[in-house]
Amino acid sequence: MEWLERISRVVRAQINYLVQENQDPEKILEDAISLMEQELITMRRALAEAIATYKQGQRQVSLNERAGQKWYERAQLALDKGNEPLAREALVNRQSYQIQAHEITTQLEQQRQIIDKVKQDLYELERKYNQTKTKKNIYLARLRSATASQKMQEVMSNLNTTGSNNIFEQIEARILELEAHSELMNGMSSDPLEKQFTALEGNHTVDNELANLKAKKLKPKQ
């Protein structure tokens, strides 16, 4: 699990840095997920390369084994023909290929263990990555709720510090001020002379309408 532990240390270090820099918590989560995605890509690429190397080693073992078998058959042929020195040389070549096949097989066993370990680490990282993505919205909802609660507490604290009664008194004083200003403006528009002319104009209109009615009555009918 060394690889996974290294990745975890990198992610934690990045998150701690963002926290110390007072970064937006949502950005911290996004960056953590992005970093895990990059590590997943790196691990998948490394796993693919390890598997490719392992398969190449298997092919080398197969080639060496076939070559060894071929030299063994040649040794048998040489003995059948009565050429023991040639048979000995063939067996020496066969042994060389057998040694190479054995060495590569030993290396392949080590590579297989590494591949199994990388697969396990990759599975664990994918699990944590999916878990983080799934819980991201839950974390953000809790964070926003906590932030809203903190802001509300700050508002209430300010109210308690300033004094709620004092605030309402200020509001009431402002309303009274606006009402007084409105009454003053109405009083300025109630000029006595203005009222007299308004009454005369109204009477003049009524007199005109009355004259029109009288004229209609006096007009002879056709």
UniProtKB/TrEMBL annotation:
Keywords: Coiled coil. Residues 101-135 form a coiled coil. It comes from the Bacteria. InterPro entries: PspA_VIPP1 (IPR007157). PANTHER family: MEMBRANE-ASSOCIATED PROTEIN VIPP1, CHLOROPLASTIC, PHAGE SHOCK PROTEIN A. Belongs to the PspA/Vipp/IM30 family. This is Phage shock protein A.
